[in-house]
Design brief:
Oligomer: heterodimer
Largest interface: A-B, 84 and 86 residues
Helix content of chain A: over 70%
Largest sheet of chain B: none
Helix content of chain B: over 70%
Number of domains of chain B: 3
Number of domains of chain A: 1
Strand content of chain B: under 5%
Chain lengths: ~500, ~200
């Protein structure tokens, strides 16, 4: 326990050190733009910011990336409540009651409730992350190369199984991501693999250009489709924010329950924020005696999803940090940042790099406290940004994407790779091929191959018979087959219903 | 059209996986073990996916409202909507705006052409001059802004770009093929550097 407290203190001091703290403040500003402008998505921005973390120390890089990631959800609540348009897909549930409240002239109250519940949720999520270290550490330390190889595959399967209902495409993209990670020099034998004799590929296919392309360039098309500003009319002065804060404490039981729900859901890989918010909303409705006002402007419909969505990040980080298994696409991209920083997720993050892990806890808490403080003070000025048209932002974002591709290795080839990956990403979106498993395969490829090689060298083929690995494989198979069984059961229930109706007829 | 494109994409994935496994056969065991372990299941799945795509291609188009996935229960519904919104199965922007498919297609082609134009522009002019000129051209001709606001926003982009990446992060950016072939530095530097020296009092 002493080690954890010591690491917490070190982590806190590292976050407050310069330039990490300054970068976190910058991240809050970037997160504000990302959150408040719909169609500028979190994964896209995270991908665009990834190249600029080169040269930063790990704490600085994560103060920037994690600070931005955790804060953008709060800011996206603003557009969800005021305009009924989610700044991010993960804040759609808050519209159900937040926007009707705005229509009833209670915009400030709804925003106040969203901000305060988000703050409480984020603190609980971060505390759960810190508290999970003594629980998760013995599990992670008991894992060897075969288990970590299994966990890498399981991570890809989790993301793939939830990829738009098309598991085959999801798994296939995960495998292709693993294949693409092998481009370049084989670390064991020095053989050049899949390089086509091109010197630019000797170091491998750049993770950053591919990520920037798949999630940055491809999203520009959607940005171009939306050519107007989100605010069709000017927003009036917002008041009553403190009333919303008080509401959060009036319903503190709901706030706490939804916060713990979020932290728990975040731990489960594959259960993204878009699902968690609806479960939180459902819980808020179910646990209320008077349900009549839900959907018409009940503040509890704002508090529940607000708390859950911000608690979830802490939970998400647990599996990402301890096992290298990201729960969401944003965590998959963040995992790329680990590799850029030369930090390997796994036992080291709970022992050698524990202070870095604990710094995550502080980054999540501090970015929320500062971000929400700014929201309270500057909300009336902040909403003015919604009057900007997306078409005005596009050239700057496109330049940033191209520079992001280039900056990794100062290579114009990588810039063109980003453009190529962008068009592949666009085709994938249009044809329902999921992108997250591909990027996750690319991120986890080297770790998976390294662990696979060690396991094979040490145990031979029999490494697949290790009990934990068998357990992981079984979980993977169940996960893959679950949607098929669900469909079959659903179809059978439908047929039975039709027969009953026919008999009655 | 979409079904055909899906089949073509599946075939491309199959060919890529097949080529990778074929390449791996020539390497020593340590280098080829993982490509085989991953590549062979990838080929099997790609074949399966091609089969699915082919079957869908032969099926008649469903009438409006038919042929859509039926999700059972609220939880499954939430999962489905979550996946679609989180992973961008369909373009959210297009759905939210309910754009005419022809307009969506035209705008997609427009922006695709601009993405290529920006990449070519950066190759020829470099990032620094490109940071002014390319946004200006985009805003004037694609976003149909006036000359004054296009120039102003182009300048704002340039100043931010220069301030953050050149002056702040000290990134060494290529001057572009044109300046390079003439043996010159980035074109903008001949105007900006003396100005900065003047402002700096040197």
């Amino acid at each position: 326990m002493d080690t954890i407290l010591q690491a917490s203190l070190t982590g806190l001091l590292e976050v407050f050190a310069w330039p990490a703290f300054g970068l976190m403040l910058l991240a809050i500003v970037v997160g504000f733009f990302v959150g408040i402008i719909p169609f500028v998505s979190i994964p896209m921005t995270l991908a665009l910011m990834l190249p600029f973390t080169f040269g930063m120390k790990p704490v600085e890089a994560f103060a920037f990336l994690l600070g931005m990631l955790s804060i953008s959800i709060i800011f996206s609540d603003i557009t969800s409540i005021i305009f009924g348009v989610p700044g991010e897909p993960v804040t759609a549930a808050i519209i159900l009651d937040g926007h009707p409240m705005a229509k009833l002239g209670q915009t400030g109250r709804a925003l106040g409730a969203a901000f305060m519940s988000s703050l409480i949720g984020s603190i609980i999520g971060a505390v759960v992350l810190a508290a999970s270290v003594p629980v998760v550490r013995p599990i992670a330390l008991s894992f060897g190369a075969p288990e970590f190889f299994g966990m890498a595959l399981l991570g890809i399967l989790f993301i793939a199984a939830l990829s738009g209902g098309n598991t085959t495409k999801g798994v296939l993209m995960g495998l292709m991501g693993l294949m693409l990670s092998m481009v370049g020099m084989d670390p064991q034998s020095g053989t050049q693999r899949f390089t086509l004799g091109m010197i630019e590929l000797y170091d491998g296919l750049g993770l950053i250009p591919v990520t920037v392309g798949l999630f940055g360039v491809a999203e520009l098309v959607d940005l171009w489709l939306k050519q107007k500003s989100i605010a069709e009319v000017a927003v009036g002065r917002i008041g009553g924010v403190w009333q919303g804060c008080k509401d959060t404490f009036v319903h503190i039981g709901l706030t706490l329950r939804c916060s713990f729900l979020g932290a728990f859901l975040g731990i489960i890989p594959g259960l993204g924020g878009a699902i968690a918010q609806w479960l939180a909303y459902a819980h808020a409705v179910q646990s209320s005696k008077d349900k009549s006002q839900f959907g018409k402007g009940d503040v509890r419909g704002v508090i529940g999803p607000g708390a859950t969505m911000n608690a979830k990040e802490g939970g998400n980080l647990i599996t990402t940090v301890a096992f290298g298994v990201p729960s969401t696409v944003t965590m998959a991209i963040l995992l790329g940042a680990f590799l850029i920083q030369g930090v390997v997720p796994g036992p080291d993050m709970l022992t050698k790099n524990l202070d870095l892990t604990m710094s995550f806890v502080w980054i999540v808490i501090l970015s929320h406290v500062i971000g929400i403080g700014l929201c309270f003070l500057l909300i009336n000025q902040m909403v003015k940004i919604t009057e900007i048209r997306s078409s005005l932002l596009l050239p700057a974002i496109l330049l940033l994407a191209l520079l992001g591709g280039f900056a990794d290795k100062s290579s114009l080839f990588d810039m063109l790779t980003a453009v190529g990956a962008g068009f592949v990403g666009l085709a994938m979106v249009r044809l329902d091929w999921p992108r997250p498993p591909l990027i996750l395969g690319l991120v986890l490829g080297r770790i998976a191959e390294n662990n696979f090689f060690i396991a094979y060298t040490r145990y031979g083929v029999s490494f697949v018979l290790r009990p934990v690995l068998i357990g992981i494989i079984v979980v993977g198979i169940v996960l893959l087959l679950a949607p098929t069984f669900q469909k079959m059961l659903g179809r059978r229930a439908g047929v039975r219903q039709e027969l009953l109706l026919a008999e009655e007829g | 059209m979409r079904k055909k494109a899906d089949l073509v994409f599946s075939l491309v994935v199959l060919l890529l996986a097949g080529w990778m496994v074929w390449q791996a056969r020539a390497w020593q065991l340590t280098a080829s073990l993982f490509p085989f372990t991953v590549g062979i299941p990838a080929i099997a799945l790609a074949l399966l996916q091609c089969g699915f795509a082919l079957r869908r291609l032969r099926q008649p188009e469903p009438a409006a409202g038919q042929g859509q996935t039926v999700y059972q229960g609220a939880a499954a519904d939430a999962v489905a909507s979550a996946i679609e919104s989180a992973y961008g199965v369909e373009s959210e922007a297009a759905q939210a705006l309910e754009l005419d498919p022809a307009v969506a297609r035209r705008r997609t082609l427009e922006i695709s052409a601009w993405i290529v134009a920006f990449a070519v522009g950066v190759l020829l002019l470099g990032f620094r001059l490109g940071a002014f000129l390319l946004p200006l051209l985009f805003l004037k001709f694609a976003a149909r802004e006036g000359w004054r606001s296009s120039i102003l926003l182009g300048l704002v982009t340039y100043v931010l770009f220069y301030g953050i990446f050149v002056a702040g992060l000290h990134l060494v950016l290529p001057p572009g093929q044109i300046a390079d072939s003439l043996g010159l530095d980035s074109f903008d530097s001949y105007a900006v550097d003396p100005l900065l020296r003047l402002l700096g009092g040197h």
